[in-house]
Amino acid sequence: MTEVAGERLARVMVVDDQTVVREGIVMLLGLLPGVEVVGSAGDGEEAVRLVAELAPDVVLMDLRMPRCDGVEATRRIRAEHPGTQVVVLTTYADDESLFPALHAGARGYLTKDAGGDEIVRAVHSVLSGEAGLAPSIQRRLLERLSESAPRPSGPPEPPDGLTARETEVLVLIAEGLDNQQIAKRLHVSTATVKTHINNLFAKTGIKGRAQAVRYAYGKGLVRPPEGGIT
Known about the structure:
By secondary structure, the protein is α/β, with parallel strands linked by helices. It has helices at residues 19-30, 44-54, 70-80, 95-104, 116-127, 135-148, 164-174, 179-186, 190-204, 209-218, and strands spanning 2-4, 7-15, 35-41, 58-61, 85-90, 108-111, 132-133.
């Protein structure tokens, strides 16, 4: 960055294949404090060449351009000129545009409805080591992270046609509770517990509590203790 009258200016290059848009962005930035436009390019190929000549601090990069698109240009700039940061400035905010650009090394992502002040903030954010993302882009990233995060798994499905209550009784048997303790835990009578046990034994072919314990562990209804089941 250069310094003028004690103020540090970010040296910025603008890349967009539409001449009117490109010149409009250059003109807008020229009216704002904190930035100095050092060049502009009409496609990704020209952008890579000019970055080598001009060494800007930040490139404002369009995505869909002829010859070399913004994603490929970003990848090449970040690989060949790591001192230059890239902020995408595009019409598109869909996943197919956003994530390839970020994977290519862009540190910021704005849509073209961004105001001049927002563009300048993004430029200085990426130069400070932060992300320069539009609020809508931040929300999309959070949504994607939420979508990809592993969801807690629910309890295993009851095996062999057992009802939820019969499965619950089976788990308590595996935990070492006797009929009276199970009845107290479930707030039912011991007769009801015996009925559930008879039913689950009949459905699973289990004979006795020892087999019931092994069955419960084998079906993943409970976790075995350290050292396994003996």
